[in-house]
Queue: 3 jobs
Job 1
Amino acid sequence: MAIQDFLNNRFSCLTCEADASHHCCFCDFDFCPMCKDFHQENGLKKHEWVDIVTYALSLKEKAMQMCRTCKESIPAKAFCVTCVLPSPMCELCCLEHTNQYLDHYLCYDMENIETNDEEKISISKSYFCAPCSFDGDENDATVFCLTCEEPELMCNECAEQHIRERKSRGHELCYNIEQFFNMSISKVLLCESCQEKGDSQTAIAFCLTCKHPEPFCDACVNTHSHQEQCHEISYHIQLLKKWLPCEPCMFSKTENASTHFCMDCEEPEPMCKTCANQHLKMRPGRGHILCNDIGKFPGHANAQFRILPR
């Protein structure tokens, strides 16, 4: 690469705005050869100078992404395009990551990774609290439960309520949301198409265009993309969840996601949190025990998938 192409006209002389040839380390300004001599003639001969190429290389080294997975200050080689929160990784961490997550893909073009002014990884979209989203509220998620078999993202207020409830008292909370997505992927959501054929393949993606999205493995993603070339594929597989509507709400032509069901009723029905609380107030349901794990509701396995808000 030619020197001028590398510099790309980014360094101009402070005085005359011509192409700079040297950088004054003391003043932190760039100068062309003529202005550099004039700068020194004004009693500034003791200032330290470096040529502009060396200075440009030092800036590039400072801006270089370092591995954020290991504790060593090692330059990053790649980042994972499958992870929702991509993190720069060194060569060794890349190898460990691909061994742990066989379906993940790495990108070695580090210029494509998004960073903010503090050189931290940028999250392009906020993720909302799952319990609040059922009431139509969009509160940023900050935490999830490490103890629950099927954890969900929560805001601080819902997290406090979670550890106050009888069944979840003593649960351990985690405020590192990136770990939630890695856990969600590692818990393995199986490809629906392959399951119908008696095969168990890990799902890595789903279709954003289809009215009823379902989890796809790598092979089924390719098949679907070939059959529906205009469809958009998302690899944020952790956003795809089973969804059951609240049956009491359906009678009032309202659609809310169910979160509870009654363990004492002979014919339990899925209910949202509001209807579940109302159930306990009514005479037939007084003293009944509710289950807040809707995944244990009979028929949950046959429920359709929905994309969580984010």
Note: The chain has eleven helices and 13 strands.
Job 2
Amino acid sequence: MTDIILHHYETSPYSEKVRIGLGLKGLAWASVEIPVIMPKPHLTALTGGYRKTPVLQIGADIYCDSQLIMRELERRHPSPSFYPAGRGTADALAWWAEKTMFSPAVGIKFAKRPDLLPEGFLEDRAKFSARNIDPVAMTAAVPYLLDQLRAHFDWLDQMLADGRSFLQGSAAGLADLAAYHPVWFLKQNFGSGAAPLDGFPRLLTWAERVADIVRPLTRETPSAGNLARQLPSLQTTPDGIQSSVNWSLRAPMRSSSGVAIAKSATSVCIFRAPVSWLHPPNW
């Protein structure tokens, strides 16, 4: 069994980002297919209640949120890098792409292809987001969502106008992976000839290059009962609790009843033997 386990489902855009990231780094990984909607009893038992997709497990360390997952993969496996042209611009591009393109792409699918959604999907997402999801209102918003995506796709397209293969040069990186998955999501549901993709042939060629990144060789499914396990060598936290997480990079906040919590600028770590959960700061 490989050390890297990805808890995901096939149609998840953020899972696709991580899957291609694993492929870019040439990493073998084990696949655990999780339900698209709640309940997710095996996942939430593993994550301490976190329900979103994907989740990465490396031994007894559980990484929640795709941004945190990509940072950890880069830390553990720095070559080939997610940052072939440097970190700052790549992180900014990735943040922009996901914050501006994911929601319009999802809204278009919800409005135009409700037949592809699992039963109970909209109800599940409405409960999770604490807001009403109105199919009529979503349908009325489609022209505006298409216009939003056209504007963002045009910016991406301009980055490729000089003939470069990827957004920041000759090598793919984090910016490509973050910008790609909304494009992939639209292609999966509507095809390359549908609006707004039909107006950007150069962008579609770039998306094909990203999709062609070599995928991992190992995709086994471990048994659910063996998922939460300790790594062979563990570090000691500032409070004397053992964990595989590099606690030297995090400031300890408190420790009580066998639970230690620490934070850094980019993550919050909760450790309760034998598992560590890592989340982004706003979780």
Note: The chain has two domains: 4-80+219-279, 96-211.
Job 3
Amino acid sequence: MPKNAIRKIQGRFKIPLNIMTKLCTKCNQEKEYKYFSFRNDTKKYRSQCRQCAKGYKGLLSDRQAKINELFKAGYKECGKCNSIKSLDKFSSDKSTVTGLTSTCKNCKVKYNTGNKEAIKRTVTKRRYNINDIEYDELSGVNNCQICSEGVKGITKHIDHCHMTGRVRGILCRKCNLALGHFNDNETSLKRAIEYLKNR
């Protein structure tokens, strides 16, 4: 523990300079004070360490140190199967500190295979900013809302306004592409209708 942190603890909680450890009444192990929770009501540390009192496996700082040590050696623990694997067994993820996913590739494939519908629901809700009720309503539409052609699977497209992001309905692939090619321009669409009428 850093010296400045030790001085702060000693000064705040009146811990003698020569005593920086405490005996856990359950496991009978002598541990540093950081392994015990401090009670604001009694202004004292708990008699049992965090591991014994709440079943914690260890401090977050200790776990992070273990993660860093493994990472430097070219390994990482999978958050799903808890196996220690080489870094090439994990996919890249720019949103994490390590730049890798928390689960290994094998676990990710197994999860994706067994949870396709749940993943589809989550991704669709996030992409179009809709809730569960709206998602279920869209899922219940089985015909294109322009040409009435039956739609399912990859032929089923959620149409939305590219300006506002608002979801408009369900279209088949052809109708969805047609609106896209017309840039959602009502004037151009009306001209196209007049063009077809006069031919």
Note: The chain has a mean pLDDT of 85.
